[in-house]
Write a structure and sequence with these properties.
Helix content is about 40%, strand content about 15%. The protein has about 400 residues and is of the alpha/beta class. It is globular, with a radius of gyration of 25 Å. The mean pLDDT is about 90.
Length: about 400
């Protein structure tokens, strides 16, 4: 896993002119997103404290973690570009750098600071047990990798009214309907969005998010793009030309609130997760290649699995089909593609009966998948012999020559 795609440093002059002064790697392409990055990299410029601010924003390709810092009289924004939405981890690193290096050292330049950040992040690792090791400047942080992608520590009631229709918000997040969040404070705006992502747990949210602090961000007025969540500063005109289904206003509250609807929403999310896992595992009983071949998990036999009451408590058939097309669902499906029950399904299936039901194109696809499946279960000689048999039967059915090397060996 690569936790850093690139680093860009921007400098802002006193008259507001922004320019890129460093890019690592040097060929890191930002041509299509340069305007967005320039507009979002200094969200606190109008505040009294311009430097030492750490924040997150998004482009259409990356999650961006920014750090505004004053060095030798120049005001910089260091922006890390990543494929993972793990704000706690990246912001922990930048805060750690700020506290234990920037505020305690003198005589360094911006290039040296960037080299330190890069050196630390590229050493982050995840082992086969999903234990993640993230190096900070003064310490090492260890955590289970999936936990970094969830947002359970963010409480929606810390940012939204107890009368908020959280069930509708949850359904929007699951079915590609846009939720607009507005807030005066960049810090609160960011955290309030993360609190909404906690509604989809145990699923890891992966659908498009537009998080911006600048009302001139061109994406706000581009109808050709769609986002699941849009987060903007409150001064932005609310008539944004996106198909917005729900508008929420976020503000930080120190009062301990309660919401029965929020409790019910989280129960719905957990129940839906259990149902989807059950349906997915059930499909393997008849065909262990079902998901690998891209067949839909939610089939027309859903009525045999989910009662009307169950659908009422979660999502109806059409909503489930829409959910299946989301990046959140697809990411969940990929993450469990080689779970232990898949191995059991292959071992318990009759290879001959399995293959005779497949089309020629499906059999050819299976041949391509076999080496990847074997790699997912290293040192499993039993499974290796099963796939060797699968390959032999496929070649017999298709009449293909076995002149290529046997990838299952």
């Amino acid at each position: 896993m690569a936790f850093l795609e690139g680093i860009v440093v921007l400098e802002r002059s006193s008259n507001g002119f922004v320019r890129i002064v460093l890019s690592d790697p040097s060929d890191f392409c930002l041509v299509a997103q340069l305007e967005v990055v320039s507009l979002c990299s200094f969200p606190f410029f109008s505040s009294e404290s311009k430097s030492d601010k750490i924040f997150t924003f998004t482009t259409d390709s990356y999650y961006c973690y920014g750090y505004n810092v004053l060095i030798s009289g120049s005001f910089y924004s260091i922006v890390l570009f990543a494929n993972y939405l793990m704000p706690n981890l990246y912001k922990m690193l930048l805060k750690n750098i700020d506290m234990f290096f920037v505020k305690q050292c003198i005589g360094f330049d911006i290039k040296y600071l960037v080299s330190i950040i890069k050196t630390l992040v590229i050493q982050w690792t995840v082992d086969p047990n999903n234990d993640m090791c993230a190096y900070m400047f003064d310490s090492t942080y260890k955590v289970k990798a999936p936990k970094c992608l969830l947002f359970d520590e963010y409480d929606p009631l810390s940012y939204f009214s107890c009368t908020t229709e959280f069930i509708n918000v949850w359904k929007c997040l699951m079915t590609k309907k846009t939720v607009l969040v507005m807030c005066d404070s960049p810090e609160i705006l960011e955290d309030s969005i993360y609190s909404l992502l906690s509604l989809v747990t145990p699923f890891v949210f992966k659908d498009p998010i537009l998080l911006t602090y600048n009302k001139y961000d061109p994406r706000l007025y581009d109808n050709s793009k769609s986002y699941s969540i849009i987060g903007v500063v409150s001064s932005t005109d609310i008539s944004i030309p996106h198909s917005v289904h729900i508008v929420l206003h976020a503000s930080k509250t120190s009062i301990k609130l309660s919401s029965q609807e929020l409790i019910i929403t989280k129960k719905k999310a957990s129940l839906l997760y259990e149902i989807i896992c059950h349906i997915s595992d059930r499909n393997l009983e008849t065909d262990p290649y079902h998901e690998l071949l891209g067949f839909p998990i939610i089939g027309e036999d859903i009525n045999d699995i989910m009662s009307s009451e169950m659908k009422r408590k979660t999502l109806n058939y059409q909503e489930l089909k829409t959910f299946e097309s989301t990046k959140t669902f697809q990411g969940w499906s990929i993450s469990r593609r080689f779970r232990s029950i898949v191995r059991d399904a292959f071992l318990s299936s009759s290879a001959k009966e399995l293959m005779v039901k497949k089309t020629t194109d499906e059999l050819k696809a299976i041949l391509k998948y076999i080496p990847f499946i074997i790699k997912a279960y290293p040192n499993d000689n039993h499974l290796k012999s099963v796939f060797k048999n699968h390959r032999r039967i496929i070649l017999e059915i298709t009449g293909s020559n076995s002149d290529a090397s046997d990838d299952s060996e």
